[in-house]
Specification:
Blueprint: H1 7-19, H2 27-45, H3 51-65, H4 73-76, H5 80-88, H6 90-105, H7 109-125, H8 130-141, E1 146-147, E2 150-151, H9 162-174, H10 184-188
Antiparallel strand pairs: 1-2
Helix pairs in contact: 1-6, 2-6, 2-7, 2-9, 3-7, 7-8, 7-9
């Protein structure tokens, strides 16, 4: 089931567009914003919000999320004006967006894992270029980093600030990721 098919998505979209009637936002754009909400929260956590990094990571992660299918042009990148307009009242909407996302990913471990990957990639983008940040996190989640003969499952979180780590834990809690046994190994790195 696609995100746009959820009644909670349609209700949030109707409420959001009614409040922002002067700025048109398509359902595809709104969907991209909801999917990227955890990334925005992590990016804002330490006060170093870099729209270009988030836009690049959003494009790459969402294309992976859609199994490398080409995304509609309006969701490939976030226009800086649209991005700033969205962030103006983001604090008022973030909990509602997370609730919609929680419902959407609730029964799908891979969607939950991708949400975690997205958050970690943004946290790492402050220390690496976006492509390297994504690859580092993907390597970490596929357990392909081997250091001194054993897997290094903490590579992507070593350079994160404590506030970024705590923000990821808080969002993971809101999205019920800690209740998925399949993610317990990845999430245990934050303890």
């Amino acid at each position: 089931m696609e995100l746009k098919e959820f009644s909670s998505f349609q209700a949030a979209y109707k409420e959001y567009t009614a409040k922002h009637y002067d700025q048109y936002i398509s359902q595809d754009e709104f969907e991209a914003l909801i999917l990227a909400t955890p990334m925005f929260l992590v990016a804002q956590a330490d006060g170093h919000l870099a729209p270009t990094e988030i836009s690049t990571i959003t494009e790459k992660i969402l294309s992976m999320y859609n199994h490398d299918e080409q995304l509609p042009s309006e969701t490939e990148t976030l226009d800086s004006n649209d991005f700033n307009n969205f962030l103006n009242d983001f604090d008022q909407w973030k909990d509602k967006f997370l609730q919609v996302l929680k419902e959407y990913i609730a029964q799908d471990t891979e969607k939950q894992r991708l949400t975690l990957i997205m958050m970690e990639a943004v946290a790492n983008a402050h220390h690496f270029n976006p492509a390297t940040a994504i690859q580092l996190v993907l390597n970490d989640h596929t357990h392909s980093d081997v250091i001194d003969g054993k897997e290094d499952l903490t590579a992507s979180i070593k350079n994160m600030s404590e506030i970024e780590k705590n923000t990821i834990k808080q969002i993971a809690t809101q999205l019920d990721l800690f209740n998925n046994p399949a993610l317990s190994e990845e999430l245990s790195r934050y303890n």
